[in-house]
Design brief:
The chain is of the alpha/beta class. The protein has two domains: about 220 residues, Type I PLP-dependent aspartate aminotransferase-like (Major domain) (Aspartate Aminotransferase, domain 2); about 100 residues, Aspartate Aminotransferase, domain 1 (Alpha-Beta Complex), CATH 3.90.1150.10. The strands form two sheets. It has a seven-stranded mixed β-sheet, with helices on both faces. A four-stranded antiparallel β-sheet has the order 8-9-11-10. The longest helix is centred in the last third of the chain and has 24 residues. The protein is built from ten helices and eleven strands. Helix 2 packs parallel to helix 3, helix 2 crosses helix 6 and helix 8 runs parallel beside helix 10.
């Protein structure tokens, strides 16, 4: 049967407990947590509830294409901050230059898809100060919060001083529990915003799938902390193997700090676009990637292809073998 529009109490309470334990965020499960149809559903509902047509929203490039698509769907205006590879560094000066009277919000995706960038505490504090100074709210997509490498720790924007009241934290468990088809996500925000997001949740799809909500709640309750540490170690090993294979093949990877994607410089391959180069690589090796223009528009994006290493060891080993033996 349908659940309440914001999810079953068992799951909202489990999420609130996790937020306090892992993220350093205090949230009332009754008034500040909304269960959604995936993190993408949470993001769409938050944008539809809180943005008006013509509002400008700043986001970092390389960006997740869905973020752009949702902004356009609600008639908001994406404004892009360019980050520089290979570490994907951004400029505070550029941030300041992009603000106008119409700027309403800023999007932070950390760990990031497609770049694998993990914003440091100092970087997040700088964005927080910027948001407070210009009275912006922050949409923070933290779906990959447990996929962290080389000893990094996740920092949630809403855990920083004065940021809980102006941040919508978006997360989910489809990636963490390797059940991407389950579509269970959530948003966390101040009560007034949560009420509006929940109304949009109800309007767009009523509720997230009821049986899956219970399954995720039990997973949060029952899995030990070491599960998440083991997850990160396993994916760091996958990252290291795949990036090593890319480098041996002459495709320079921007080493990801988190998530499970890597952007590789493929400019040495034949072709004048990311699509042409991705197709060449597919034809030569059978290894598929997403053209960089999906995340970085224009000429700069043509130099990149995004790969996912969220694969079985058998498949990943085969991809590495093909890349290193292809003679690219």
């Amino acid at each position: 049967v349908y659940t309440r529009f914001d999810g079953v109490p068992e799951l909202r309470e489990a999420i609130a407990d996790k937020l306090g334990h892992y993220n350093g965020i205090r949230a009332d499960p009754e008034t500040e947590v909304t269960v959604s149809a995936g993190a993408t559903g949470a993001f769409h509902c938050a944008c539809a509830a809180l943005l008006n047509p013509g509002d400008e929203v700043i986001l970092f490039e390389p960006y997740y294409q869905y973020h752009i698509s949702v902004l356009m769907a609600v008639e908001a205006v994406p404004v892009v901050v360019h980050m520089q590879p290979p570490a994907w560094i951004y400029s505070l000066t550029q941030l300041e230059q992009l603000v106008t009277a119409r700027t309403k919000a800023i999007i932070v995706n950390s760990p990031g898809n497609p770049s694998g960038k993990v914003f440091s505490r100092a970087e997040l504090e700088a964005v927080a100060e910027f948001a407070c100074r210009h009275d912006l709210f922050v949409l923070t997509d933290e779906i990959y919060e447990y996929f962290l490498y080389d000893g990094r720790r996740h920092v949630s924007m809403a855990s920083l001083p004065n940021m809980a009241e102006r941040t919508v934290t978006i997360g989910g468990y489809s990636k963490t529990f390797s059940v991407t088809g389950w579509r269970i996500g959530y948003s966390v925000a101040a009560q007034t915003w949560t009420r509006a997001i929940g109304a949009m949740n109800d309007l767009l799809y009523v509720c997230a799938p009821a049986p899956l909500q219970i399954g995720v709640a039990r997973g949060i309750r029952d899995l030990p902390d070491d599960f998440y540490g083991s997850l990160a170690r396993d994916y760091q090993h996958k990252r290291d193997r795949f990036c090593s294979a890319l480098a041996k093949a002459g495709l320079t990877p921007s080493i990801p700090e988190g998530a499970y994607y890597v952007l590789a410089d493929v400019s040495r391959l034949p072709g004048d676009s990311g699509k042409a180069r991705a197709m060449y690589l597919l034809e030569q090796t059978g290894v598929a990637g997403v053209p960089g223009e999906a995340f970085i528009p224009g000429v700069a994006g043509a130099n990149f292809v995004r790969f996912s290493y969220a694969k079985t060891d058998l498949d990943l080993d085969e991809a590495c073998r093909r890349l290193t033996q292809a003679g690219l």
